[in-house]
Design goal:
This protein is α+β, with helices and mostly antiparallel strands. The protein has 4 domains: 5-36 and 147-191, no CATH class; 42-140, Beta-Lactamase (2-Layer Sandwich), CATH 3.30.450; 210-291, Helix Hairpins; 300-473, Heat Shock Protein 90 (2-Layer Sandwich), CATH 3.30.565.10. It is 51% helix and 16% strand. The strands form 3 sheets. Strands 1, 2, 3, 4, 5, 6 and 7 form a 7-stranded antiparallel beta sheet that branches. Helix 6 (210-257) packs antiparallel against helix 7 (268-294). The protein is elongated.
Length: 474
């Protein structure tokens, strides 16, 4: 659905931001005007009148007073109205005339002597004698300066508070309008990644702007991904059946084609074909296992597992496959824990790492364990080869990646490490690799220790498993 221009989120955000900014600026401006209003004149104190009246009672002295002249103490003439007619009848002190002309003229017309506080002094008057009038000004006292400063600071604080709360209002409104929907979209994206097909978007898909369009697109994507996952799972099931069956028949046919009467006359072409069929079956099995792990098709069957016995059984099984493998795999005595986990999946993790080390190196493969606390432990698989370039360490667990395919072209297709990582993730752990300081590659399998009492009562107990496992290893 195409979004109309007047439904555009960009336009709405611009209009909302402009309206809020205008409201905040207007509030600050009005507040500044309110606090910037000129102070009102107050009656002149009686003691000031009694002090100045004797000095202003003489006609000659009064007529000689011109703006800027010092009268007595700190008082000087700020404005005067002389008896002469003409443009020079009104005289104002130049500095005051530039900044406070209106206040001077208004004060000259007052009926009674008053005092008006200006930023740079206290204006006093008017004092009249016949047709002459004068205004005096004195510096502000310390108390008057402090009071003036307090009023100025209050005005600045009020403006700051208006701007602060106005900005907060803008942030809150924009948050409700934009940030909350984005959080819901992020949560919906995570739900899709987790495999959900029904998203919790509330009323978001009903919006007519870009966010609404994105929400509707996510709903469509979630549904399409669900359909795709279902189709992929069906395909895996079909591929598993359709590929395994002909491969099994080919293996049987190749065995029957061997000449049992004359074993020395084995056809080398048939032998090579048998190896390739077996290799192809292994590759298909690993691809299907990786796909099942990535699609969450593996169901865990937690059992009490003695990890040390499991590692020793794995080494014994490899020795049965190849005697040289048994000589190269060394299981170290360490603090191996007993944990409730899936035996097959944990074995898959370790076996793929060990097989990978056996195929790519020629030395001893060490299996060690470090128990951190009662909740976590780490299985270490270390070889004594040449290690891996640092730039390739992060790629080791990518499907179909091989560090040196030219040197070991028969080592596999690069799925063992990826299988170990996916299986460890299903078990609630992780896998990482590093070059050991003393040489070789060391792969760490970090897993949680799950208490035995978390499994059902009808499963084997820890005592039973410890009694049975030595018999199985024999």
């Amino acid at each position: 659905m195409q979004i109309r221009w007047y439904h555009s989120l960009t336009l709405r955000l611009l209009l909302l931001f402009w309206a809020l900014l205008f409201a905040v600026a207007s509030s600050g401006f009005l507040l500044a005007i309110w606090y910037a209003q000129p102070e009102t004149a107050k009656p002149l104190p009686q003691e000031v009148q009694e002090t100045l009246s004797p000095l202003l009672s003489d006609q000659v002295t009064f007529a000689s007073l011109t703006p800027g002249r010092l009268l007595a103490g700190n008082y000087r003439v700020a404005a005067a109205v002389t008896p002469e007619e003409g443009p020079n009848r009104l005289q104002l002190e130049p500095n005051l005339a530039n900044t406070h002309r209106r206040e001077l003229l208004r004060q000259l017309d007052a009926d009674q002597p008053e005092q008006l506080r200006l930023p740079n002094g206290m204006l006093v008057g008017p004092f009249k004698l016949d047709t002459q009038r004068i205004l005096l000004i004195r510096p502000l006292s310390e108390d008057e300066r402090v009071d003036q400063k307090i009023n100025s600071e209050r005005a600045e604080q009020a403006q700051t508070m208006v701007l602060l709360f106005g900005s907060l209002a803008i942030a809150v409104l924009l948050g409700f309008w934009l940030v909350l929907p984005l959080k819901r979209l992020i949560s919906a994206t995570r739900e899709i990644a987790a495999g959900a097909d029904k998203l919790h978007l509330k009323r978001l898909p009903r919006r007519t702007d870009e966010l609404g369009e994105l929400a509707r697109a996510l709903e469509t994507a979630a549904h399409d991904l669900k359909v795709s996952r279902d189709a992929q799972r069906r395909l895996l099931s079909d591929v598993s059946h359709e590929l395994r069956s002909p491969l099994a028949r080919m293996q049987v046919a190749l065995m029957l084609s061997q000449d049992d009467d004359n074993p020395d006359a084995t056809n080398p072409h048939l032998t090579q074909m048998s190896r390739d069929v077996e290799r192809l079956g292994t590759i298909i099995e690993r691809i299907l296992s990786l796909s099942r792990l990535e699609n969450g098709l593996v169901k865990l069957d937690p059992q009490p597992i003695n990890t040390h016995e499991l590692a020793k059984r794995l080494a014994a099984d490899l020795a049965y496959v190849d005697a040289k493998y048994g000589e190269r795999v060394l299981v170290l005595d360490a603090d191996w824990p007993i944990t409730a986990t899936d035996d097959e999946l944990l074995r898959l993790v370790i076996e793929n790492l060990v097989r990978n080390a056996l195929q790519y190196t020629a030395g001893i493969i060490e299996l060690d364990c470090v128990r951190h606390d009662d909740k976590n432990f780490t299985i270490l698989v270390r070889d004594h080869g040449d290690g891996v370039p640092e730039a390739q360490l992060a790629q080791l667990f990518e499907p179909f990646f091989r560090g040196d395919p030219l040197r070991h072209h028969k080592a596999g297709v690069g799925l063992g490490m990826a299988l170990s990582l996916r299986a460890a993730n299903v078990l609630g752990g992780s896998v990482s690799a590093r070059n050991h300081p003393d040489g070789g590659l060391e792969v760490s399998v970090n897993l949680p220790i799950v208490p035995i009492d978390t499994i059902t009562e009808d499963e084997p107990t820890e005592t039973e498993i410890s009694e049975q496992e030595p018999q199985e290893s024999n």
